[in-house]
Design a protein that fits this description.
alpha/beta, 15 strands, 26% strand, 10 helices, seven-stranded mixed β-sheet, six-stranded parallel β-sheet, single chain
């Protein structure tokens, strides 16, 4: 089968298309024929190993310091189950699924084996494989943080980085939960964010969102909002969600704010789950949320796709489609 491999960290060119053996499912595993996967900002960071200093050591332990010790770039997938192990009860051949493969295998391949109890569920019936592949990480992360904030109907919620993968889902989920949503993005993405249901959109190149309005929840999905000014822009008992923390100081400043005031600063790492994907599937089939796709590339264009995502200007999601994905 065709698969992307990489034996060293570096530029997108380290990603190489090769023929490798097709995997065989264990007794508790399903063999999935992958029709679509994604390139995320996390994939780019891991491939290049350009990470903030505080993450360097733990990531080196997990993935290797000098060179990668596991093919962990590429985690989201949508596809069809081709065969199942003898002990599998939840799935059968022909099931259309989507999910998150985790960090021990790569979805940049034509086939993958995953345990049936993993983060894999039946995909939304009203989505293409490309649209479904975009959901597991971005939507699950948005859902994780909004739940951490205990979001309530009628609250004023600001989404910083509203046009990215997490941001586009966060806008829609916040609206689903009944919030009044303000999105912050660049000039070129204003109409996109409005189309997702944002009640107000702020162009950060022209306006400072910390200028006067206050919010019950501020959700920074990209790690670029000004910390002190954002905290000041919270209402009493407001919550500041940091979905991407790249500065060590924030791990000190956040808890300090939570200790000395009624405001809370919440960080963390979302753990995708099959229950969350089932919940998101229900929202998708009810047409409450949808995927935003910027560009699609073939597996052979993986280096080009990584180069595009690395520039940091993608809208929503970048998809990798495989040759055999002529199904919906």
């Amino acid at each position: 089968m065709k698969a992307i491999t990489f034996t060293k960290y570096g530029s997108p060119d380290v990603l190489q298309l090769k023929e490798i053996d097709k995997p065989t499912p264990q007794n508790n595993e399903v063999l999935i024929r992958i029709y679509a996967t994604t390139v995320t900002s996390g994939d780019v960071k891991l491939r290049s190993f350009k990470v903030p200093f505080m993450y360097w050591f733990p990531m080196g332990i997990m993935f290797g310091f000098r060179k990668p010790n596991k093919p962990a770039v590429g985690v989201e997938l949508a596809g069809e189950i081709e065969s199942v192990g003898k002990d599998v009860k939840l799935f059968r051949k022909g099931d259309q699924v989507y999910g998150d493969a985790g960090m021990n295998v790569s979805t940049y391949a034509e086939y993958i084996c995953l345990p049936e109890e993993g983060v894999v569920v039946i995909k939304p019936a009203n989505m293409t494989y490309e649209e479904a592949a975009a959901v597991p990480v971005g939507a699950s992360t948005a859902l994780f943080f909004l739940r951490k904030a205990n979001i309530q109907s009628g609250q004023k919620v600001l989404i910083y980085g509203a046009s990215g993968s997490v941001g586009t889902f966060a806008v829609q989920l916040a609206k689903y939960f009944g919030a009044e949503v303000t999105g912050v993005c660049s000039t070129t993405n204003l109409e996109l964010v409005k189309s997702l249901g944002a009640d107000k959109v702020i162009d950060y190149t022209k306006e400072d969102f910390t200028g006067g309005e206050t919010y019950d929840v501020i959700f920074d999905t990209v790690g670029k909002s000004p910390f002190s000014a954002s905290v000041k822009s919270l209402k009493q008992n407001g919550v500041y969600l940091l979905g991407a923390v790249w500065k060590m100081s924030l791990y000190v400043r956040g808890p300090w704010v939570s200790m000395i005031s009624s405001k809370k600063v919440i960080t963390g790492v979302a753990n995708e789950s099959s229950d969350d994907l089932i919940f998101l599937k229900q929202l998708i089939e009810a047409e409450k949320i949808k995927s935003v796709i910027d560009r699609c590339y073939s597996l052979e264009q993986i280096a080009e796709a990584h180069s595009y995502v690395e520039k940091g200007h993608k809208k929503g999601n970048v998809i990798i489609t495989l040759e055999q994905n002529n199904k919906t």
